[in-house]
Amino acid sequence: MRATVTLLKSRLPQIESKVPFQEILPLKLKNTVSGKTDKTSDVACLQEMAVMFSCLKTNEFDESLCAKEVSTFKKCYKVYIDKKAAKKETSGKGTLVPGRDLNYKQLNKVLRQYPS
Fold first, then answer.
1. Which of 59, 76, 82, 102 gives the lowest tally of CB atoms within 10 Å of its CB?
2. Weakly modelled stretches of the chain, pLDDT under 50
């Protein structure tokens, strides 16, 4: 009895021709992009840091016994800082590098070149 009641109460899908489209805002893109979402919280060298801390913990925080792990972490962090500086330099110039993600300034530059 209960199954038949639920089957009778189920809704049928709407017919698209009976539901008119109402345009509330114009269907076109804006000419600019805000830079709010460009601020990402990327974590650098998380794996290397975890290995280094586990080594330091097992050796009672004696850096001389974990020289390899510390140097690996420092190399990784230096590479991260260099990449970040290079990215900041290219985004500051406004040069467009094909195949890479564009930041909001570069994207606004492209949108100015091809207005709608």
1. 82
2. none
Evaluate whether residue 7 is within a structural domain: no
Asked if 54 and 68 count as a contact pair (C-beta separation under 8 A), the reply is no
Nearest CA-CA partner of 94 in 115, 82, 112, 114: 112
Flag whether 68 is in a domain: yes
Model pLDDT for residues 55-87, shown as the tens digit of each residue: 999 999 888 999 999 999 999 999 999 988 987
Give the range of the structural domain holding residue 92, as residue numbers without chain letter: 44-116
Q: What type of residue sits at position 101?
A: D
* CB atoms inside a 10 Å sphere around CB 71: 11
Residue pair 49/75 in contact (Cβ under 8 Å)? The answer is no
CA distance to 2, 11, 13, 14, 114, per residue, from 93 (Å): 69, 57, 53, 52, 20
